[in-house]
Amino acid sequence: MSRSTRVLIAGALLVLTSNVVAQSYPVRAVRVVVPYPAGGGADFVARIYAKSLSDSLGQQFVVDNRGGANGNVGSELAAKSPPDGYTVLVTASTNLTINPGLYRKMPFDVQRALAPISILATQPTILIVHPTLPVATVKELVALAKTRPGQLNFGSAGPGSSGHLAAELFKMVAGVNLVHIPYKGTGPATADLLGGQIPLMFNNLPPSLPLVKAGKLRALAVTGETRSPAAPQLPTMAEAGFPGVVMTLWNAMLAPAGTSADILGKLHSEIIKAAKSPEVRDRLSAEGTEAMTTTAAELGEMMKSETTRWASVIKAANIALE
After folding, report:
1. Is the omega angle on the peptide bond into residue 232 within 30 degrees of 0, that is, cis?
2. Residue pLDDT, tens place only, 226-252
3. Strand partners of residue 63
4. Which residues, other chains included, contact 300 with Cβ-Cβ below 8 Å and sequence gap of 6+?
5. For a tag site, which of 139, 233, 269, 317 has the least CB within 10 Å?
6. Could you tell me the residue ranges of all domains in the chain?
7. pLDDT tens, 134-159?
8. Which of 45, 73, 31 is nearest to 252 (CA)?
9. H or E stretch at 52
10. Are 34 and 63 in contact (CB under 8 A)?
11. Alpha carbon distance 213, 179 (integer Å)
12. How far is it, in rounded angstroms, from Cα 119 to Cα 107?
């Protein structure tokens, strides 16, 4: 048997073996690393999809919360796990697109260490103010801020958080001078906003809507490209007169680089099915989040383009973390 024939046979066997593995996958539990504490947005989305994948594939998809460093700790753990399909990552767009420009030294290369599978869900941030602030629209807020430069504070979950970056982008586009007050999490920031210690903040939509509906906070706009189905009465920032202020948060599933294309494809197919199911869509929608899917290539391109976009905002705002 010639060497070329042996090579062809070996290649055919490799393809056959890969297909067999993908067809039988998974044969044991799959770990779903969420690089944030339980109870947050990424955790909520991960658990909904984990249940759906468990049901459709016949093996448990078990959520493993590994918080720390704005998602870097858990994401590094997932990225450096064996690329066998039994560890996947469900994380937030901020982890994938803001952290690379925010941290002076990243513990892993987001673009090279992770294989994109699909976006799972999307939501905008929301601009909310304390009811005592005498503004009812974004333009009124900008007008007030320009008469009181450096006197209006905004809170966030911490330096480099989505709320912080959304506000910095707003400052640049609107030409206003607002002062950042960082907190150790969204909860403490929201508590001070409710108490009137700070007058405004950009926050995630799901936890904010109940407070708005209860009259405890006033919402001015959302930062998505279109209105949110969960709050259709709220204008986008573009409709409010500030088209450059767009921040759409999304959650995505990825795997360690080197994971077989057949396994990635199988996971992608199941995610598409899950996202179309009324159970998944309704559970997400009830919390102000929309089911959304992409191809792996589309997710990869979004990661690249948004990393570049947010790096410019981070540089202009002079933000850096160790």
Report:
1. no
2. 999 889 999 999 999 999 999 999 999
3. 32
4. 111, 116
5. 233
6. 3-122+250-317, 124-222
7. 999 999 999 999 999 999 999 998 89
8. 45
9. helix 41-57
10. yes
11. 27
12. 23
Sequence-ordered strand ranges (E) for the chain: 30-34, 61-65, 87-92, 114-129, 152-156, 178-182, 200-204, 218-222, 248-256, 290-291
CATH among 3.30.360.10, 3.40.50.2000, 3.40.190.150, 1.10.1370.30 for 3-122+250-317: 3.40.190.150
- Amino acid symbol at 87: T
Contacts of 280 (CB under 8 A, 6+ apart): 48, 49, 52, 274, 291
The two structure tokens encoding residue 314? 């981070």
Q: What b/e string do you get for 37-73 counting C-beta neighbours within 10 Å, with b at 16 or more?
A: eeebbbbbbbbbbbbbbbeeeeeebebebbeebbbbe
What pLDDT does 5 receive? 62
State pTM to two decimals.
0.85
